[in-house]
Amino acid sequence: MMAGLNIGMAVFFETVEPDDLLPIGLPLDDVGRKALMKGANEAFEAGGEVGVRKWVYEQFGDQADNVWNKFDELTGLEYLLKPDVESTVLQNNLVNELFRDTDKYLGGTAGILRRGTPDEIADHMIKAEERLGQMRKILETGMTGRGNNRVRLSENDLDIVRQIYDDLLDAYNGAKSTGY
Predict the structure, then answer these.
(1) Domain end: 53, 76, 99, which one?
(2) pLDDT category, 20, cuts 50, 70, 90?
(3) How far apart are CA 24 and CA 18, in angstroms?
(4) What are phi and psi of 152, to 5 degrees?
(5) Are residues 86 and 69 in the same domain?
(6) Collapsing DSSP states into helix, strand and coil, what is residue 17?
């Protein structure tokens, strides 16, 4: 993750090209990137992958999305981020349960199953089984929610559920194959 972030920041700084503004050739983009990577590493040590994400938004403000877009473009890891869905029922009943603001690892529950400690993985296996079952029902019916709160999902939201399902199933099967 940190290597991808480093590349994303390098690409971002190259587009800004601060050295072009000066009459002498100083590698300000490299100096700035190295200083920022030091801060990103400290944020990672303090708060894991989610800590780095928060740190990037604090440092880059409105430009943070550009850094993350380059990171995603270069690494293909956009699935690690909490997805935006149209349905608030889906957001509240599934997405917010799998991707919490307090998560230590990017990727939500799947991230924990891939990179967590043995205790963290064991604690999340049952949650993963329950959420996989919930998503199977959503994919079978095209709906989510209960009672009067039941809604039909858009194709876009169903695609997102399929992606989350596939990723969580992959992580779950990987954890299970190692003895969990």
Answers:
(1) 76
(2) very low
(3) 11
(4) -85, 135
(5) no
(6) coil
